What we know:
The complex is a heterodimer.
Chain A: E1 8-14, E2 22-28, H1 32-43, E3 51-56, H2 68-76
Antiparallel strand pairs in A: 1-2, 1-3
Chain B: H1 9-17, H2 19-30, H3 43-62, H4 64-68, H5 77-102, H6 108-116, H7 133-154, H8 160-188, H9 192-211, H10 223-228, H11 236-254, E1 264-265, E2 271-272, H12 278-288, H13 292-305, H14 307-329
Antiparallel strand pairs in B: 1-2
Amino acid sequence: MATPNTPLWEVFIRSRNGLAHKHVGSLHASDATMALQAARDIYTRRGEGLSIWVVPSTAITASDPADKGMMFEPAESKIYRHPTFYEVPEEVGHM
Amino acid sequence: MYTQALNTAETDDRGLEDAARAAQFQARIDAEERIEPNDWMPAAYRKTLTRQISQHAHSEIVGMLPEGNWITRAPTLRRKAALLAKVQDECGHGLYLYAAAETLGTSREELVDAMLAGKAKYSSIFNYPTLTWADIGTIGWLVDGAAIMNQIPLCRCSYGPYARAMIRVCKEESFHQRQGYEIMLTLCRGSEEQKAMARDALNRWWWPVLMMFGPPDAASQHSDTSTKWKIKRFSNDELRQKFVDATVPQAQYLGLTIPDPAMTQDADGHWRYSEIDWTEFKQVLAGNGPCNRDRLAARRKAHEEGAWVREAAASYAAKRAQRQIAQAAE
């Protein structure tokens, strides 16, 4: 039997406490333990992180770029959601 | 995450007919927007990038061989630790690049198989042997120097995953060049034999390094579309000239002479080098360089000897998954 292709994992690294884990790339590993070890070797050779998450790539549901308009345009037209939409006289000071 | 949900090949072929989509795509490129894996792209853009990024990845992996040759014989522990770290970096670079190439829809296994079968190319430079310790210095200084020249503009490549991989690679590559130059500096300040070794290495590597930038602009096949798609920001000859201009003063500082007696400096400061022997370049690309067969044989051997590890890891993962299902059913 041919060896199946090694599954793909997405790697997230927290560079400092207080910051969120950030996507840094992907790698191949046959299980979660090996994925963590490989992530350490591939993505933290120069002290880039304090904590690593690995997630099977198949577990991620992504939005379709073709739906970009429908998904995100409604937010763009609602400028009243931003503080700069409102006028406050200068005499009032910083608000 | 990108490979699973890719547009299938069939939709791409239909897309190719779609002039409106192609025009829209070009407009995004012209507006300096980055293209991401799930975005529509012309089939030829996908193909060009898959070829370029995978070749780049193969080069990093094959590039471990000439330098790995000297790890056990590095002259001091400091040099050995640095060389080991550098070779590990090359491996990491190969892996970032395979991951970027895979986002275009070809699996790493397929890409690696194409290289092992001799169908995919890697950089001509790694088909030259590393005969002395000075070659390790020269590779860091010149080969990595040339690679940096080529890779910095790729950090702004239109394809997002490739550009991001290049940013990481470039950050790490600067250590490589500096460690190489330091080796050369030590040799050039050393005994007569050490100086001779440095001169010999420069003499052997200079022309192959200039060839790394690829054929002259007049003869380059891929440049036009790659430039239009902003995969490529500078031409081969432009990058080569930048490299020569940056390198000549570094060689002068070392007290080494570039093996090109006809080289002159223009009034505008550019160093004009002699005609490059392109027949040698073509021979090396065609598989007839000094080490082509060795390199491929070494890669094939490593791949074959690692087969049982891949099999064992896969069956262990399958066994654990089965056990988890069984436990969940209890």
